[in-house]
TrEMBL record:
InterPro entries, alphabetized: Lysozyme-like_dom_sf, TtsA-like_GH18_dom
GO molecular function: hydrolase activity
Low complexity composition bias: residue spans: 186-200
Gene3D superfamilies attached to this UniProt entry: Chitosanase, subunit A, domain 1
Region (Disordered): 179-206
Source organism: Mesorhizobium captivum
Top-rank lineage group of the source organism: Bacteria
Protein name (Swiss-Prot/TrEMBL): Glycosyl hydrolase 108 family protein
Keywords: Hydrolase, Membrane, Transmembrane, Transmembrane helix
Domain TtsA-like Glycoside hydrolase family: 15-93
Length: 263
């Protein structure tokens, strides 16, 4: 299990959490290294924005350790799964991260990392668990009102965490470096193929929509504009979904290639 892996996992998350932020579009409000003022105040009641902005590294590690790593029982999770779960928890809360992890491994969903969940995680295919958890995380993000604002950064972050978590699992599974590199490159190629398939699908949907609309108009002196509009609306939605999926798989391909290059 990943006991002692907290620093390595947190280091990946902190790259994305960045420094000071007080973005009005972010419902979390004032944030430093991913720690909101509200969270900081649970550890230091009455803390100000200035104090948050000058938070010490020891406080950062303590807050992430007690508030995020401990609730997901990071020390008891397999290598790589701990990273994917921690980063998800930092973004969306430990309970949500655990619930999706439970869904992935087929454990009862209660948001608590109990012995039954741990057993299911340990017995599961770790690489598949990481990939499925990251996919669920991204789907959850797409349902948020602020998705349009943060979608590019979030997509790249989840892809990067997925690739690094898989690389970590492969390394701790004892796989030799050349084999790890080959495995990661294979995942990159698979993601690229998926991206290309989604792009072709979007093009096909666009062509099919035009043909359907044109066909309806051609066979009737008074075309059913409501039907045409309905078909057009469905086509637009399908194309949008395929374009988003294509972009996400491109991000995954790039992340896996970068992970392979560091082996």
């Amino acid at each position: 299990m990943a006991k002692g892996n907290f620093a390595a996992c947190l280091g990946v998350s902190l790259v994305y959490e960045g420094g000071w932020s007080d973005n009005k579009a972010d419902p979390g409000g004032a944030t430093m290294k991913g720690i909101t003022l509200g969270t900081f105040r649970t550890f230091k009641p009455g803390a100000t924005k200035t104090q948050l902005r000058n938070i010490t590294q020891s406080d950062v590690e303590h807050i992430y350790g007690v508030g995020f790593w401990d609730p997901i029982r990071g020390n008891d999770l397999p290598f790589g799964v701990d990273m994917a779960t921690l980063d998800y928890g930092i973004n969306s809360g430990p309970s949500r991260a655990v619930k999706d992890l439970q869904r992935v491994v087929g454990a009862p969903v209660d948001g608590k990392m109990g012995p039954g969940t741990l057993k299911a995680v340990i017995l599961a295919d770790n690489k598949a668990t990481i990939q499925k958890l990251c996919a669920r995380r991204l789907t959850s993000m797409q349902g948020l009102k602020i998705w349009k604002t943060f979608k590019r950064g979030w997509s790249r972050r989840v892809a990067d965490v997925e690739a690094k978590a898989v690389a970590m699992w492969l390394a701790h599974a004892g796989m030799p470096a050349p084999s790890r590199q080959s495995e990661l490159n294979a995942e990159a190629n698979k993601a690229q193929d998926q991206a290309q398939a989604q792009t072709k699908g979007a093009g096909g949907a666009a062509g099919g929509g035009v043909a359907a609309g044109g066909g309806n108009a051609a066979v009737s002196a008074e075309p059913n504009w409501w039907m045409i509009a309905g078909i057009a609306a469905v086509v637009v939605v399908v194309i949008a979904i395929l374009v988003i999926k294509s972009r996400q798989h491109k991000d995954r391909a790039a992340a896996y290639k970068a992970a392979a290059a560091t082996v």
